[in-house]
Amino acid sequence: MDLATIRDRLNERLAADEYADVDASANGLQVGPDEGDVGRAAVAVDAAEATIETAVDRGADLLVVHHGISWGGFDRVTGRTYRHVDRLTEGDLALYAAHLPLDGHQRLGNAAGVSDLLGLEAREPFGELGPVHVGQRGRASDPFERAALASTLDSHLDTDGRDVRVLDFGPERVEDVAIVTGSGTDWLDEAVDGGADALVTGEGKQQVYHEAREAGINVYLAGHYATETFGVRALADLLADWGVETTFVDHPTGL
Questions:
Q1: Are residue 113 and residue 17 in the same domain, yes or no?
Q2: What is the CATH number of the domain that holds 11?
Q3: 111-to-2, 95, 115, 226, 231 alpha-carbon distances in Å
Q4: pLDDT at 172
Q5: Which pLDDT score is estimated for 53?
Q6: Over 80: is that where the pLDDT of 160 sits?
Q7: Domain containing 241: what range?
Q8: 253 occurs within a structural domain
Q9: Do residues 186 and 133 both lie within one domain?
Q10: Helix axes 3-13, 230-241, angle to 10 degrees
């Protein structure tokens, strides 16, 4: 399949242009030729030496990631950035990144994947960021016991052996769940104002402990990497539907 066609289709499906003014990531094709064929694509959470090398070893023509290598553009291509670009070009591997568009997509996104895992219903966009959203909110048809929700996340997410951390300051029975994957505690106030019983995210900041305690809400810290594999896996399925062979490069960080 033509690389430009894949780029354009992904840009359109993820509404990448809508996030241009609020996302530091240069979403879209970050490294690659104007023309080229893609027979095999690899997907990964992070564009790093380890994932790039694995994608090259697996014979991929395209690597699709959540965290790319261009955040606001390049002033200089040196050091780590040079090594990444050099290996990509040497391996004839194009790089496509979708950061916030892949967080906020209500069907293909990371938060949508967590909602699927938890079986949430009556879903709606959550995590307002200017004109867009970066998460999702829904209700459990059968409310979770607080500890059972943590166990569900623990048993299904690749946390690299670390338990999901729970700030258990909210109700014992959790029905209304707000989700922003990765680093999403900045949306705690939105969850509280909307009456959510819990905020599920990846990692927290120091102040969220007191903020959650004072607001009376549960916060689940399930790992940045662990909560952000859903989007790229969904894109792998999409690419496969388009006739492209796909492979998932799993490289958990434990963070």
A1: no
A2: 3.40.1390.30
A3: 29, 23, 6, 12, 8
A4: 98
A5: 98
A6: no
A7: 3-98+229-248
A8: no
A9: yes
A10: 130
For residue 144, the SS3 value is strand
Give pLDDT tens digits for 96-126.
999 999 999 999 999 999 999 999 999 999 9
| 150 part of a folded domain | yes
Q: Could you read off the pLDDT of 83-96 as tens digits, one per residue?
A: 999 999 999 999 99
pLDDT for residue 132: 98
State the chain's mean pLDDT as an integer. Answer: 96
Classify each residue of 83-115 as buried b or exposed e, where b means 16 or more C-beta atoms within 10 Å of its C-beta.
Answer: ebbeebeebebbbbbbbbbbbbbeebbbbbbbb
- Rounded to the nearest 5 degrees, what angle is found at the Cα of 144, between the Cα atoms of 141 and 148? 145
**SS3 of residue 221 by DSSP:** strand
Burial track 32-46 (b if 16+ CB lie within 10 A, e otherwise): beeeeebeebbbbbb
Cα-trace Rg, the chain: 18
Residues 65 and 137 in one domain: no
Q: Is residue 255 part of a domain?
A: no
